[in-house]
Amino acid sequence: MVALIPDFAHETEAYARGSVRVVGVDEVGRGPLAGPVTACAVRLDPDHIPAGLRDSKLLSAPRREALFDEIMALAEVSVAHASVQEIDELNILRASHLAMERAISGLAADHALIDGNLIPRGLTCSATAIVKGDARCLSISAASIVAKVTRDRIMVDLAQQHPGYGWEANAGYPTKAHLEALQNLGVTAWHRRSFKPVHNILYQAISVTS
Asked: Which of 2, 55, 119, 204 has the CB geometry, 3.0–4.6 Å to 135, for a possible disulfide?
């Protein structure tokens, strides 16, 4: 299947309808067992768009890092998170939307182009949901790159504080090594207790001690 090439059409359409501050928004970190969910909003300058923007999942780590630096230099960027505690209290979908709302508010946007098929209910601006937006829309592609690089760096830092789980490589996702470490090393404060593999281990521990 041929990869989609993102363009600036959605942004151009929003500006044509009268919007002044159009941002692309994406999040990363819904699936991991550990760490925050991270969202990013990016407002690109139409005259200074970094070359080679793509869905972050299609880029190598070195290419993501290089584009991250370009985006930070050339665009307006807002990054926000929802914590592990918020994920457990709200659920992962609502927490990811909360992170998006926070990121968007950081740029005073009047229209948001959001990756996916749902629009966060707490937005204070108009919005358009774009399925596969990170592969179709340049602003969302940029947001996906910044969110991914930012969260990966957070997980590398957390891996130094909690060695053995492989977060520097798996970013908290449920790899075989991570699941084995959960069994052998136990649950940290950065693990999402509402996620089944973590919940099950905690329940086992309670059952054994009770």
From this structure: 55
